[in-house]
Specification:
This protein is of the alpha/beta class and 366 residues long. 37% of the residues lie in helices and 15% in strands. The chain binds pyridoxal-5'-phosphate. Pyridoxal-5'-phosphate (PLP) binds next to helix 3.
Length: 366
Amino acid sequence: MDRIFLSPPHMSGKEQHYIAEVFESNYIAPLGAFVNRFEENLRQYIGVNHALALSSATAGLHLALRVLGVGAGDYVLASSFTFIGSVNAILYQNAKPIFVDSDESWNISPELLSQAIKEAPIKPKALIITHLYGQVCKLEEIVEICKEEGIYLIEDAAESLGASYKDKQSGSFGDMSVYSFNGNKILTTSGGGMLVSNNEDWIEKSKFLSTQAKEDFLHYEHTEVGYNYRMSNVLAAIGVAQMEVLDKRVNRRREIFKCYQKELSSIEEIIFMPEISGSRGNRWLTTLCLKKTNPQDIMDALENENIESRPLWKPMHMQPLFKDAMVIEDGTSQRLFETGICLPSGSSMTDEDVMRVCTLIKRVLL
Ligand SMILES: *Cc1c(COP(=O)(O)O)cnc(C)c1O
């Protein structure tokens, strides 16, 4: 049997056509018309004023922190239940993370967030929230808290492209937000990211920093440290083709989730990741946790049949890298990590693939 991957790339068929256009124009290196097109298409889809195509979402988060003035000794609040790419940039800036645990939504708890702000040694400058596995956070409460406290909100929408809350796209609520086009995400350019904001100055400054901070001279002149973070025109051509099928990809991932739910939700010990009221997640990955069975039993049973599955992200406050970091937690994300699984969820999966996975899970649990 062919291997079923967790979330493999799913091409639309138009990518090579656009790449051929890039080759015909010879704009291989590095910027060109497709970078502008990709930015414009994503910007319009999300409903924000400005977008900047980058080499990764991690680079986008680094630029966001830098542009928002986060530096050495500053504190940055962040969801603890996330992938490391969400928070590495805090360390790049020599700032200090304060990790905040999840609530019943699996995403960051607004209540614990307020507590973290109260207990922080000095006022944190920014908050990075992750819309985990494509389901959006309690955005209304979080936006309100950030506004009241004067803390910048950065949305890590790496996993949630196409997800919405009250008909507004994830990534359009923050001061700055990032998306990822890494190989396992809902859309991929093989590797890449996008930084968006309604603030033109911040995006212009990010563009400057992402291209080695070259001052406006014909000779190369530099007054501050920059980075090489821009996306290449070849990869942007893939991105333009991928954006054309985003709605289809979201719908298919949601269908796959519904299929798992229909087959498995009668099993008492299974709890799927919820979708908060007023929101529409992209169900990037179908994830669930188990009340009594060890998730390893399911992962082993699937691996024996050449099917990839994974544990949930290990919370940042449990990572050796962050053993000394401040954390406000009540055991929620630790419990989810210890009892949870990510199931194969690629939009190219067939219904038969999903049924194959379900049959194996039932064999373990029933
Ligand atoms: C994938 C991911 C990132 C990193 O994205 P890159 O484009 O690979 O840098 C950051 N945060 C989250 C939550 C992710 O899932």
